[in-house]
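Question thread 4412

I'm putting together a teaching handout and wanted feedback from people who do this every day. The idea is simple: show students a protein as raw sequence, then show them the structure tokens that encode its fold, then repeat with a second protein so they can compare. Below is the first pair exactly as I plan to print it.
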Amino acid sequence: MTAPSQQWSDLKPRVLSAAVMLAVGAVEIWLGGWWFLILITLLTAVMIWELAQLSQRLAPRQALTIAGLAALCLIADEGWPSLSAWIVFPLVPLAFMATPRKQQSAVAAISVAILIAGHGLFVLRDEQGTIAFLWLLGVVIVSDVMGYFAGRTLGGPKFWPAISPKKTWSGTIAGWIGAAVLGACFVAAGHGSFWLIPLSPLVAFAGQMGDIGESWLKRKLQAKDSSNLIPGHGGVLDRFDALVGAMVLVMVLTRFFPLPIGG
């Protein structure tokens, strides 16, 4: 296999896996309600399971127990609004801290980010509408795709070689540009104000930091992927780490001002 073909060897399985995930996601987003909550809960639980698997020292069944706890917490928070996330969500990081594992504090903190993102994705679709959810998903996808192709085509200086040796500045900046263009398209279509344009690359950057954060953890835990559940992508956390980072930022920002998109 030649060097150029090796460079793109993971493209076909990545595209096929992404197509399946997009098809399933599109149906669930369209259905909304409990169907969408089930999907978000499943993704959240699997990411928590992967996190527990990566970091555990003993008792493999602990990972399934913590994942089940995360699923119950998310369903309880969304299904019964009287049970605040402030009450149920801390149970998951406490479970990580109470069991023997590597990088305990970091893993507990990442579990909080995953839960916040799961909660935020459901709230965004349920309260802000499908357009807002598609914008967020689009920003993450466009940033990832632009970064992948620009980084491998243009190359150049590495963004953070000590943590993520494959990421380049060319790919990172291309991701920002793609996100800004996507934001401008939503504005041109009448689905947002001007502020959506600068907000989009900021959210893309948060997604890139989510990816970097997971890369840092995998290096610390000496793991290549969070699991091997998704061909060409590794694990669910490998695929959705950027979405977690982006959603957490959106959740923080919406505490201070309304999201400049909706409908």
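The second pair follows. I'd like the answer to focus on this one:
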Amino acid sequence: MNYHKDNKLNTSSLNETIDVFHRGGFYLVQPKSGGHRSGMDAMLLGGLVPTDFKGKIVDLGAGAGAAGFAVASRCKNVEVTLVERAAEMVDFARKSIALPENAAIAPRINVILADVTLRGKQRQEAGLSDNAFDFAIMNPPFNSPFDRKTPDNLKAEAHVMSDHMFEDWIRTAAAIIRPSGYLGLIARPQSLAEILKAFEGRFGDVLVFPVHSRKNGAAIRILVHAKRASKAPLSLMPALYIHDDDLHAFSPLVDAINNGKMSIWQSI
């Protein structure tokens, strides 16, 4: 996979790796074991931001920052704020910002240690002010607590959803995105009803992109794009197929999105 690890950059003496994304467009320090390691979900999420977008982007629950870095790498006129509550993952993001290989995009990326679910004064004091951003992206934990458990607490925190999670995260997004700003998220299809419920009175003009492994299978993810304070109706968008037919290689479209060559919008 072109966004995956380059062993020459593996810092094997530490519990971390330096992974290459966008075919050298940016480099990401990630946990070697323990915690969440980013891959295609983060790249697809970043693909919801148009390449010519200008403004301030916030990546909520950013982990090590893969989706936010992907947006900064492809979109040259954005400033990206990564928001993450796990101090260990924030440290990885800060190391990535400091890498010489990221010098071209690092001035446009900053990171905040904060819980996405903070409210009111606490949220603002953490640096998440009302109407401060033009576009929010999020890859919240979307595994059920009843799915296979992991003894890794840091990984569990990144993967397992809490009660009312979408309500809490989308409430924060609605507060910090300016009116007519945008929200993009990736989730499992079974979460759609909960997401739409949390959008009520906050977001409209909802566009849902089903993501399938192959054309003969059910969707395994949904990408959701919505506009703050819009009353426009929901639209079901063309599906994305990760693989063509029975081939193991990525489809040309998904490969281009994975590697920062285009956004989803350039395909429709």
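Top answer:
Good format. For the second protein you could add a caption like this: Residues 190 and 231 are 24 Å apart (CA to CA). Helices lie at 40-46, 66-74, 87-98, 120-125, 153-159, 165-176, 192-199, 252-258.
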